[in-house]
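User: Sequence in, structure out. Go.
Assistant: Echoing your sequence, followed by the structure tokens.
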Amino acid sequence: MLYREAGQFKTSYAADQAIFPIRQDRIFIALVLVVAYALIPAAAGWAGADYWLNTIMVPFLVYSLAAIGLNILTGYAGQVSLGTGGFMAVGAFAAYKLATAFPGLNIVFVFILSGVVASGVGILFGFPSLRIKGFYLSVATLASQFFLIWLFNRIAWFHNYAPSGVISAPPRAVFGNIFITGAESSAVAKYYFVVTVTILLALAAKNLVRGRVGRSWMAIRDMDIAAEIIGIRPLHTKLLAFAVSSFYCGIAGALWAFIYTSSVEALAFDIDISFQILFMIIIGGLGSILGSFLGAAFIILMPLFLENVPPNLGLVIPVNYTTNIQQIIFGSMIIFFLIVEPQGLARLWQIGKEKLRLWPFPH
């Protein structure tokens, strides 16, 4: 009875089609916002803001944003992609070129334009999706991953002819003296900026997949021939999925380079990060915005769990075995969810909500 929908009547179309039509969902989202904007910064300030915010929360949010982008393409549109890291690199280097070429351009517009550039590159590599799909499409996107990383390493113009090939974020402020990049920036300012961007884009993605565009993506995912028969244009729909996905990944890459690391090279966006984000949406749940956050939380928190919990329990794990254990756990979780629960952690969350609807009157 904690999650009963009975008695919550809708009196307008707007109320019926709201993103969160159930009162309990709205309360939950309000609590999440309170935790994100009040409790986490307060707790981080008490325990050490630089570590908790810069090392845990900011990468978690950036990974979540990239996972949302890949989930739009793979989970909702059914287009398998292994080039997420390459599109993140496009966003990072585009943001660097825009910030250095136009010093007066606000950092918000720098990130938006970097996402637009990544979106254009995603459309370019999305054209083969009309003729190929499945394994062959994943190989094509994998080729884009290697090509983009090679391009940024090979052409010095992208990193302003720096001998090291590393791009460094110039100091930029959102407004006034609130810097989010450079030496004058603070961990709290960075966190607030990233969490605001992530929440806004997550809500936009949630609203997008609920409408006509999202239904077109899911129709293409389930059976593209049937979708074409009922009037959905496959090329237009697939390219739109590539564009939106690359936009999210491009902004995530710009946030990674400017907010999280402050300086980065192209090899930081190699194939490993593409596989990591793919693992996130498989573990979290394909076709779920919430699953993108759950998968990112799992990937971020599992290494911290293995590094801190076993020593506190008196177990000694050699450092060189920690990475192997992580890989075994990730592989086991992926196999488990693919076989037992393909919808991932998001489905387990939904099952928990259904149990609350029945309690205290189980079948």
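User: And one key feature?
Assistant: Strands lie at 167-168, 263-264.
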